[in-house]
Structure formats: C-alpha cells, structure tokens
Amino acid sequence: MDIVTVDGRDAATFERFFQLRDDVRRTEQEFPAGLGLEEAKVLFAGEHSDMRVDGIGLVDGDTWLGIAWLDWWLQENTHLVDVELAVAPQYRRQGVGSQLLEIVAERARQEGRRLLSGIALGDAETGESAGTAFAVAHGFVRKHVDLHQVIELPLPAEQLDKLEREVPGYQILQWREHMPEEWLEEFADALSAMTVDVPTGELQLEATQWTPERIREAEARRVKQGRTCHTTVAVAEDGRLAAYTQMGGAAGTPDRLYQWDTFVRPEHRGRKLGMAVKIPNLRSLQAELDQPAVLHTWNAPSNAPMIAVNEHLGFRPVAQRSNWEREL
Fold first, then answer.
1. Which helix or strand (DSSP H or E) is residue 150 part of?
2. Distant-in-sequence, close-in-space partners of 309: CB < 8 Å, separation ≥ 6
3. Which terminus of the chain, N or C, has fewer Cβ atoms within 10 Å?
4. Contacts of 238 (CB under 8 A, 6+ apart)
C-alpha cells in the first residue's frame, strides 16, 4: 500500500480522494451532509488565514482504500488537528483505518499538535455506531454530543404564516452573501459571543475571535465555493444586534441546505426572537428553491430552547454527532 498526500493542486488525485469520502457518506447516512466537490476544492487548493486543509490517501495500485481529511487551525486551536477518516466498505476491518490514524498522529506530532479531534455519527437515540466503536478502540474520549435534526423543504407558506410573530421593539433586517459595511463590527462581536455561548461540552476548544476582516475573508471564500448565505437579524431599539440566524447551501449539492448559527444575546432571550429571525430567513431560503431539499441543523441536547424552536417548525432527529479527542 502507498500513501498519497492530497493538497488540492492535483485535480485528478483530489477528485479520487473526495469521491471516496462522499461515497462513504452517502452510503452510511440516511441524510448525508457535507461539502460538495467544488466547495472542498477551494478549501484544499486555496490559502486561508484561519485554516489549512489537506488529506492523506491509502492506495493499493489504482485502488483507493481509505482517506483522512485534515483541518489544521492557524489562529485559534493551534494545539489540535481535526481528522475525518473514511474507509471503503470492502476494505474495512483490514487495518486501513488504524494505519491512516497512526499516519495522521505522527504528522500531528511533527507539526507540534498535541490533540487529535474528530466526529463520529451515531444512532439518533443511542449515539452509537461503528464509528464510535472505532474511536473508543483507538483511545479517543467522547467530549461532546449534538443532535442532528432535519426538515424537508419547501414548507407550506401557510405554515410559515402561522409561526411568524412580530416582536415589538425590534427591527428585522436581511441580507445575502455580503454583509452591509455598517454591520460588520456589530456582527463580528455577535459571532464571537456565539462561539463562547454555544455548548461544547468538555472539548478543549478556544473560542473564535471574529473581526470585520475575518468576516470578509469568510464571505469571499464562500462565494468562491459557490455557496449561498441568507442572513436575518433582529436589531434592538438601542441599535445593537440582538439576534441573528444564517442558512444556506451550495450549487453543487442543491439537495443539502444548512441552518448554521442562530444566536440571541442573553439579555434579549425569552422574547421569541429565535423564531422571529428564523421564519423570514426560511422564506428567503425557500424563495430560491427549484427542487425539494433537506435542511440540516445540529444542537447540543442541553440547548433545549433552540431544539424546541426547531421541533415547533417540524424538524425531527435523525442522528447524534459526537465529538471525540485523543491526546498525543
């Protein structure tokens, strides 16, 4: 077996790498989620201030047995590397995953990282799967769990009408791919607050510090990837951004849409602002649909208010996503 390094500059190699990963996801997940080919290619081939993305393939001649996808964080969380393993079904239980993991661990040590971090999907009720069993067998410890919920779109307009509520004292604003200049500072502050506020269990994570420059870089990357982003915010009477939500997808995977962040500042909670921003954002998202799609979202079970909002909309649980760590 040979080891192939994948950095996105060799298109043919990258496509073989990506195809194996995507095939595994589609085979094993009833509701697969993740980047499409062009989205991933931008991450691998580009230079980014906050992250470097590359991969490893284990091949036998022209046959790809398994891959490791690696996210190296460059601003916060430089103590860890995120790793995702995918092994072709016919080559499992033959040591492919174990060999890939040890290659990754050695690379991480060489780059001064002390922690491997990864995600395993499991049953919606038990959280267990072959992936979680592999993690336990290879010294990983489960540190956090999110509930994966989905809903089929489009939702009937009548359903959205019944759920929509005006919240006195707040102005609802919307924008698409590019944030208005006047909201950059305020939105950067809200994004940073969200990364502190969101439940992360016992994960050894540093909160992301957002700046206007970082927002603009993320926007440019998203546009290059062919991704869309719909943003709705609630502005309080004092002019501060009280709540926001973002949803979107990509042209390459029109059947997969994502509910990204929804955040309400602590001092504005209890006023149904979560629903107040979600409904108009859903309207914006659905207005561009030309085929049925599945909207995905993830929340920690401890985040009961947001899960309740999602359930009220009609989201249902389909899996648990658990985060694992292994000290090197």
1. strand 141-153
2. 262, 274, 275, 278
3. N
4. none
Question: For residue 230, what are the CA distances in angstroms to 21, 116, 278?
Answer: 28, 33, 10
Quick check: 104 and 68 in contact, CB under 8 A?
Answer: yes
pTM of the complete model: 0.94
Please write the tens of the pLDDT for every residue from 256-280: 999 999 999 999 999 999 999 999 9
Q: What are phi and psi of 50, to 5 degrees?
A: -105, -15
**Axis crossing angle, helix 11-28 with helix 37-45, rounded to the nearest 10:** 130
CA 86, 89, 90, 96 dihedral sign is positive
The string of pLDDT tens digits covering residues 202-219 is: 999 999 999 999 999 999
Please give the domain boundaries of the chain with CATH numbers for all domains: 2-113 (3.40.630.30), 150-317 (3.40.630.30)
Alpha carbons 83 and 94: distance in angstroms, whole number:
20
Residue 22 near residue 35 (C-beta atoms within 8 A) = no
